[in-house]
Amino acid sequence: MRDDFMTVMRRTALVLLALFLLAPAWAMAQPTHIAPKLIAESAAPAPGETTTIALAMTPEKGWHGYWTNGGDAGFGLQVEWNAPEGVTVAPFRYPVPEALILFGMMNHVYEHPYALLADVRVDQSVAPGTDLTLSGVANWLACTDKICVPEKAVIAVALKAGDGTIAPASRERFDAWRARLPQPLDRAGTWERRGATLRFAVPLPDSTALADPHLFVETRDLIDYAAPQQISRNGNELVVETRAKGDAAGPVDALLKLSDGRGLSVRFEPGAVPRAGDPVGSAGGRGIDLALFWTALGGAILGGLILNLMPCVFPILSLKALSLARAGGEPRAAKVEALAYTAGAIVTALLLGGALLALRAAGEQVGWAFQLQHPASVLILLVLALAITLNLAGAYELPSFGGGSGLAAKGGAAGGFWTGALAAFVATPCSGPLLGAALGATLVLPAWAALPIFGGLGLGLALPFLAIGFVPAIRNRLPRPGPWMGNFRKAMAVPMGLTALALAWLFWRQGGADTLLGAVLAIAVLLTMCGTFYNFGRWQRSNRRGWPTVACATLLGLALALYAIAPTSPESAASDGTTFSPAALAEARATGKPVFVYFTADWCLSCKANEAGAIERAAVQTAFDKAGVVTLVGDWTGGDPVITRALAEHGRNSVPLYLWYAPGAERPEILPQILTPGLLVEKAGG
């Protein structure tokens, strides 16, 4: 009996010991409310170099994770690494958090998917081909508004020493995560304690736009996190005042949230803080700078008006001119068409602006004119431009659309609306005077305040047409309808045809010759189907059935010619030192020579006009060579996220942008959007 009892006790002890030993593994195997995934930017890091890893965290709906300093409750993530020999992992860098107050306590949280980034250094002594699989045990806190759960998981990523190759998709993904990281401020701020009040001074130029800023203090035992923050501007200093809670001293680390997920990491040293100035982020109780909003809105309207004179808009003027001429002197028809045109321009600008804001909120690094950074959009525009060109040339008549009005080429409300929509869609990618700064303000304004600025751009674009429709004195100066309109219509087919050729060239640049050939084949088939199934134009009325064949043969000949001379892959920026990158810029500035950086795109006609008329002129290049100017080119044709961030850093989300770095200067000079050879020669000291 005693032996049976001892046997049972031994077995029970073994079971308890097994459960004790297996408990950690069992706990790590449990499902988590925030799913972690360790990802490497390069699966083959090169010995002697550094690669980046990301711990992507995906909270369930209603759950959130925490910043490195969780605030009044909560804590960040800790990892116990199991790193191979020769591999060093730096601390994780956190994206900009959100402030969440629950039960009177301030939490610094992430309620949506987020990623922590860390640099991984591979020692030079590691042999190529060595297995460098990296693993660790991660601990974090997951919470809702009611409960909190400490969570743990094993994280791992397979690595093998190699050449450091990074796949384009991986680079794009990591660039989007890097854009969410705070950028380090190049100067230290100051902080002081006055009784129960803490005061911080952030050295931030008064030209920097802000929308509802917040200071997240990383240093513990210093600040009452839930206390209101009074933020004001005193010249080039941003002053933050709040309540103290703790006795920490010495340097203070913090993060200043700006807007749209952007932020600045700041180191504060003890020192004097200037007096408070003009309040920031309290205009009308909605958290925006009203002066910035009205300035940006006025700039967008005026910039849209000036845009009518830019080269990129000229082809669309043919459609405007035909609509105006067709309206003649009949007041009601002119007003209806002018209002419809205005509505089309404004609605399209709002839709583009809304899509831009939605993409940026989703973490995409995009800017104004993103619609021309994708071959599918360019192809749609190419088909439309070709169809309108042939219609203006008299090859066929477009089918009725909306009460008998032809799409973008007929009169009436529908025709006016679609003409305005097309003008906004094609014209707005070009950035003229005032427009770049106005659109740049949308980077720091909340969405509800940014959308009217996009609408203002459409209104400015439509103002001339609107004035003609409602001001009889202007309308009466227009020529009366007559036979001349037929010849004028054919003449206006020329700029639209040039637009179609420009779009074909852009499509070729983005997709290569193979893609262009396929597109031309598709267009040829489409034109053949149109000629077969519809009763279009004089060629069918006069039994001239050879027109589709001629058009298709022309398109096929053009495609084959381009295919013979074109590369089989999209053209890309040069890989030498003239291509812009943050590293190339730092290297160029370290030489002590002047540096000229310009951001351009193949679809931006004003960019190309500046390049041909100023940058590439012999006199300018001679002056640059004499002064030793280093020129860097940022090609934004395909929407490079690195360039998108560079534009945003200078308050822009469109091209062109021209920067001049004088030797020794801390910040660049932003040059006008319309360049002249004299200006560049003067900058070079010629």
From TrEMBL:
What's a Pfam family in this record?
Answer: Thioredoxin_7
Q: Which domain of life is it from?
A: Bacteria
Q: InterPro entries this protein is in?
A: DsbD_gamma, DsbDN, Thioredoxin-like_sf, Thioredoxin_domain
Indicate yes or no for the key word Mitochondrion.
no
Per the database record, which ranges form the Thioredoxin domain?
Answer: 560-686
**What are the recorded Gene Ontology BP terms?**
cell redox homeostasis
Q: Read off the SUPFAM superfamilies from this record.
A: Thioredoxin-like
What is the annotated signal peptide range for this record? 1-29
Gene Ontology terms for molecular function? protein-disulfide reductase activity
Q: Which PANTHER family match?
A: SUPPRESSION OF COPPER SENSITIVITY PROTEIN, THIOL:DISULFIDE INTERCHANGE PROTEIN DSBD
> What is the official name of this protein in its record?
DsbC/DsbD-like thiol-disulfide interchange protein/cytochrome c biogenesis protein CcdA
| Source lineage | Bacteria, Pseudomonadati, Pseudomonadota, Alphaproteobacteria, Sphingomonadales
